[in-house]
Amino acid sequence: QVQLVESGGGLVQAGGSLRLSCAASGRTFSTDAMGWFRQAPGKEREFVAAINWSGSSTYYAGSVKGRFTISRDNAKSTIYLQMNSLKPEDTAIYYCAARRLSMATMNDGGYDDWGQGTQVTVSS
Known about the structure:
The chain has 124 residues and is mainly beta. It has strands at residues 2-7, 10-13, 18-26, 33-39, 46-51, 58-60, 68-73, 78-83, 92-99, 113-114, 118-123. A hairpin with a 4-residue loop joins strand 7 (68-73) and strand 8. The N and C termini lie far apart (39 Å).
């Protein structure tokens, strides 16, 4: 099992930027694929971005491609989500997830451990 703690959420104006961090502890982090998901009020949790074990492959939802960047620092057991050109529709609780496989997936059912989430609010 891996424990995940998100941070970096907050209130930003539309067009602004924010960087989320997810610190991992527990089992070996460097072999896990990682993902970011988000859930807006009254909506289902949706895929945002994912990264494989080494960071060589990344995947993005169409709604965030070109604006968000996922990265990882295995030496620090941390992954990041850099969010630029934020829109009000990006408002949601953002969750970090870990998968006990090296290849990433956009399916939230493929992830084994989840953080508590961090709130991101984008004002218009």
